[in-house]
Amino acid sequence: MHIRGDHAGLAVGGRLDVHSAADARTVLHSAVDDGVGDLVLDLSELDSWDATGLGVIMGVHRRAGRCGRRLVLRGVPPQMQRLLVATRLHRILAIEGGIGVESLPRV
């Protein structure tokens, strides 16, 4: 997993899973704490995430809200969009451009 960017926008690539969650949480929480306004998280380079990785995203979302900020997801890959829809988290998280539920392939 790799994360690059600053306190206003970050790009996450690789796998966000149980093995990388602690490092990702540290970087993302620092970005939330050090900035103002929306924090845009670009996931277009993310290969996969597991439940732990999704938990990191939700933790950052909550932390951003407590800091008066908003976490915005950008470039969410289709397989991750399906997971957000299945867990109904697409209704809670801010997703740039939204998710066209009807256009997602059925599994």
TrEMBL record:
InterPro entries, per database record: Anti-sigma_ant (IPR003658), MlaB-like_STAS (IPR058548), STAS_dom (IPR002645), STAS_dom_sf (IPR036513)
Q: Which domain of life is it from?
A: Bacteria
Q: Which PROSITE patterns does the record cross-reference, listed alphabetically?
A: STAS
Pfam families hit by this protein:
STAS_2
Provide the GO MF annotations for this entry. Answer: anti-sigma factor antagonist activity
Spell out the SUPFAM superfamilies in the cross-references. Answer: SpoIIaa-like (SSF52091)
All residue ranges annotated as the STAS domain in the record = 10-107
**Listed PANTHER family:** ANTI-SIGMA FACTOR ANTAGONIST TM_1081-RELATED, ANTI-SIGMA FACTOR ANTAGONIST TM_1081-RELATED-RELATED
| Family in the record | Belongs to the anti-sigma-factor antagonist family.
Q: What name does UniProt use for this protein? A: Anti-sigma factor antagonist
State the species of origin: Streptomyces minutiscleroticus
